[in-house]
Amino acid sequence: MNLDFSIILKYLPFLLQGAGLTIELAVLGIAFGILIGLLAALLKISHTPLRYIAHFYIWLIRGTPLLVQLFLIYFGLPQLGITLDAFTSSVLGLGINSGAYLAEVFRGGIEAVPKGQTEASLSLGMGKFLTMRRIIFPQALRISIPSLGNQFIITLKDSSLCSVITMSELLQTSQRFASVTFGSLEFYTTAAALYLLMTTVISALLRSLEWRLSKENRTRGC
Fold this sequence. Notes:
Layout: H1 7-44, H2 51-62, H3 66-76, H4 86-112, H5 115-123, H6 128-158, H7 170-181, H8 184-220
């Protein structure tokens, strides 16, 4: 066995650039997913026929692999006359996929808020929209933060699948240099270490955020 991790130093700037793109994909994907997930959650708990659309979306996306969804967006949509570049397709795929899971996260957070608060707000004449915006959603968001953070980590790791649609994120960058240098073990080990570093930092930030929120709750006597 002949391992030479010194070759990594030459290509490390490119690997870090790929890691930066990985983070960018994850951030944009989860931001898009939050918007879709919140909308789907509100539709699902509504008493309108639109809730069936939310049910169908969540069922469809959670029941199919992200890789298939990326293929449909990047390779399938051009047959319908809709051509998207790899970056847009990646963000769209990650956002649609994470949104289906976040919809359930937000729904659970909203339903965890005591119904008495809604009734009290409505009795004060705030209206359903204002009650949701000022009373229910801030509390639901606080409840949902741990699951939201976990989904962000999942989305960051899932972004590696975007390499199959020519997205030059961390994994594809590692694959490219591994094939050139025949240093597969060195490059894939380095890629794994970078993924581990990113997820560890994110986890630490999330724990700090949860601790601060719990401290605020204790201070307020919640």
